[in-house]
Amino acid sequence: MRLFGDPLRISFAVVFAIGALYIAFIETEKYVSRSTVMIKNLTPPPVDGSSISSLLTQGTPASQDARLVEVYARSSDMYRLLDEEDRLGDYYTSERLDWVQRLDNETIFSPRKATMTNLLEKYNSDLVMVFDDASATLDIEFAYADAKGAQKIVRDIVKYAGEALNRFEKENAQTALKYLEKQAALKRKRFMDSIKKMIEYQNRHNMFSPTSDVERKSSILASLESLLVQKEVEYKSRLQYMNENASEMVMMRGDIENIKKRIKEIRNELASSDSSGSAGTTVGSVSGDGTGEHELNRYVYDFELLKNQLDFNKQLYTQTLVKLEELKVQVSQNSKNVIVVTEASLPDEYRYPQKIKSILSLFIMLFFIYGISVGVVKIIKDHKD
């Protein structure tokens, strides 16, 4: 057991020594640049609550925008932009990284080959993004082999993420704009159809509005009835001292008869099926069987129904046009602004590897494995004995 144990201890000691030497002297030292940003929605809120429901994610919570930025920052699209700007592909295959972390274009070992998948994985392992709900801010960190390179990459991530966020918003607005343009055309047609129906109804019955006609004629009727009372009182007063056959009295009786006749005509018009009398006949007075009132109410009901439908279609069309103009403004401008709370920092010392911590962790891990190995060997030897 002692003879087998010494080589085992030596083996673990050699592995620890190699690991510690790698961490202390070979592993690439990486500098971390950090920037804090906040997503600001510049889209104005609806002016009132009567506008149609928003077709976009307006008033999007900051966390949703931040998650969108994070998803895009970790995507292959962002990597390609950074590769063009900062040559990340060359960096991950260069001698700036130690041989353990470096990728190779010529190796046949798949995990070490410089494929797009492995390059993207390396890039994401160096990128750290944390959203703080309390302050609604997003922290962006990137580890790189030199301080200025790390700072530039963080700045590029913030720039490209802001451009992408507004591009997504504009594409979304374009989609909604096409939908609203179709809706505006449909609502305009409905509005115009309502106007045509209203005009056709007014022309068919020779009226502007049965309600206003009734109100106007009722007002005239009330005036005539008041005038009739005055004339009758005046006639009876003069009859006490004047001859009823006098020309003035005859004239007053004629005026009274004309007023009565006109009152009767207006009452018949109010009770007729056609308030203008265009049909050439009347349906009887208000005091008759009620048919006139029923037909008049039907005309009022039909007219009010058409009028309300016209007003409703007009309101829908107006609201759609307002929302359409809002979307046109949103398409033409940047509605989301990535506000840099703290600029990308220029680190003055490396953060990775944390050499003492890493060496200590390696020692604990190897010591634990060594203890298990010794126990397994001892159990096997006991069984053999």
Counting H and I runs of at least 4 residues, what is the number of helices?
A: 10
Given as residue ranges, the uncertain stretches (5+ residues, pLDDT < 50) are: 1-5, 46-59, 273-292
Total beta strand runs: 4
Biggest β-sheet: strands ordered side by side in the sheet: 2-3-1-4
- Specify the CATH class of the largest domain: Alpha Beta
Integer average pLDDT: 82
Overall shape: it is rod-shaped
Measured distance between first and last alpha carbons: 12 Å
What is the helix content? 55-70%
CATH architecture of the largest domain: 2-Layer Sandwich
Would you kindly provide a written description of the structure presented here, covering whatever features stand out?
- Strand 2 (127-132) and strand 3 form a beta hairpin.
- Helix 2 (62-73) crosses helix 6 and helix 7 (210-239) packs antiparallel against helix 8 (247-271).
- The protein has helices at 2-26, 62-73, 76-86, 88-92, 116-126, 147-205, 210-239, 247-271, 291-332, 355-384; strands at 31-41, 127-132, 137-144, 336-342.
- It has three domains: 1-27 and 365-385, no CATH class; 28-183 and 334-364, 2-Layer Sandwich (Bacterial polysaccharide co-polymerase-like), CATH 3.30.1890; 187-320.
- It has ten helices and four strands; from the N terminus they run H-E-H-H-H-H-E-E-H-H-H-H-E-H.
- 65% of the residues lie in helices and 8% in strands.
- With 385 residues, the chain is α+β, with helices and mostly antiparallel strands.
- Residues 1-5, 46-59 and 273-292 have low confidence and may be disordered.
